[in-house]
Here is the input.
Amino acid sequence: MKLYLVQHGEAIAEAEDPERPLSAAGRADVGRLAAFLGNANVAVVRIVASGKLRARQTADALAGLLTRNGAVSEVMTGLRPGDTTEWLADVAEQWRDDSLVVGHMPFLGKMTARLVTGREDDDIVAFTPGTVVCLERQMVDKWSIAWVLAPMLLEGPAIERDVRQTDR
Here is the structure.
């Protein structure tokens, strides 16, 4: 089973809009990420997201290409920056199908560390807005990092061309 942990895309400043929707750059990054993952045949049974607008927008963009029905499965509380990771670690152990979680830092960094090392204070992945970490469960309570993809890796003419072809 794979668990994809995604930090929402870049959001506009709170002073500009207290709801903090995705910025134009954030929407573009998430669009490239969705196209790349879709082209790589990443598919998930469920996508859960934080209730914050920027996380929901990121989840919606990913759901369109990565789920069978194109919809976010659930908006969950407990995925905010300061929330505890224990509940999601317990839930993820019950999941049997590939799943994707869209949330915030430092929650996602702590969640990654908790699943991989057993200690949420280990700093093992450098998340930036729009980053996805693919964790793979080896056995009960044993996860490893399969790969990490940051938006800066998806920039450039070849990627832009692939994204345009996917959008047709």
